[in-house]
Amino acid sequence: MRIATYNVEWFNNLFDDDGNLLMDDGWSGRQDVTRAQQIEALGVVFTALDADAIMVIEAPDHNGKRATVPALEGFAEAFGLRACKAIVGFENDTQQEIALLYDPEQMTARHDPVGQETGKKGSHGSPRFDGVFRIDLDIDATEDLVRFSKPPLELAMATKGGFAFRMIGAHLKSKAPHGARSKAEVMKLSIQNRRKQLAQAIWLRKRVDEHLSQKTPLIVLGDLNDGPGLDEYEGLFGRSSVEIVMGENGDARLFDPHARQALQRRIGARPTSARFYIASNKRYLQALLDYIMVSLDLADRVPVWRIWHPLDDPDCWNLPELHRALLTASDHFPVTLDIDL
Questions:
Q1: In the predicted model, what is the mean pLDDT of residues 249-259?
Q2: Is residue 292 within 8 Å of 319, Cβ to Cβ?
Q3: Cα(30)–Cα(53) distance, integer angstroms
Q4: What is the predicted pLDDT for the residue at 190?
Q5: Average predicted confidence (pLDDT) for the chain
Q6: Mean pLDDT of 74-85
Q7: N or C: which end of the chain has fewer CB within 10 A?
Q8: d(Cα 220, Cα 55) in Å, to the nearest integer?
């Protein structure tokens, strides 16, 4: 069985309000890429993945005017994908939903949020992901109220053979310091936003602990938008979201070989899953942002991870159509997990 995570940049821009694909020459939102070009490239990538389940990060919008599920299912139908059934969780107001496309012939998926509902005052522990988490972020004896801008998608999964497991799709993101007018304000806002991201990682880790304590097979996947050595603020806090979610200081651990390699190698070559153009430097920045973390019972099944990087993966490099499609479709590249469930 193949499980994937894929952050699709500006996916929402490729659909009209009725969920129909906009196969035209209008700009997609990606630099110098039309909607038709991005749609065609995504069709090539999703077809090549041939996955049983794809956690789509930055999926089409879900609000009063638009709906994620028909948009994704229409996309799957247009390209004849096996993963033709979509499911979404709590909506958000960022135009970057978290949704799952899956093959209904191979598995079932049910949105199954865990944790207590909260009011505006929030609660400790691990409340439901559309609620409010109380935590002292800066050790000032005053608790902060933390919300997910993109609530993680909690799913109860089962294969057609009856194997039950849990899946959590996540997109943790530290906001850019919008509105800052000086270097000091940029630093202040950046630190505040990073602190909130780490609080969200702690909240997510609390849920992971609950599942692992119950011996529940678990997969946590998506874009943590954070990792070893990504920016200067990691040194300030001493740890990244990746380390928190994976487990540390004796916690029961999740496993992802790419994360492990990056954490063990501060200098030298490390895997990457995203590629961004930095205009000020006239260069590309590559980073490891996308992960598929599994509980150790699943890791014992000898799964195989793969980053579909068009420049690093030989098969992607040697297939010109797929190579071009991966570069055109998104600034992130898919990550897959092949596992016997």
A1: 87
A2: no
A3: 25
A4: 62
A5: 89
A6: 98
A7: N
A8: 10
Q: Which domain holds residue 278?
A: 2-338
Give yes or no for residue 225 having a pLDDT over 50: yes
C-alpha pair distances (Å), 295 with each of 57, 164, 251, 335: 21, 13, 12, 17
Measure the CA–CA gap between 276 and 109, rounded to whole angstroms. 33
- Least Cα distance to 146 among 188, 178, 193, 187 occurs for 193
Q: How many domains, the chain?
A: 1
CATH code of the domain in which 60 resides = 3.60.10.10
CA neighbor of 40 nearest in space, from 57, 27, 23: 23
Distance CA 121, CA 126 (A): 14
Q: Give the Cα-Cα-Cα angle 257, 199, 115 (nearest 5 degrees).
A: 90
Q: What is the pLDDT of residue 64?
A: 81
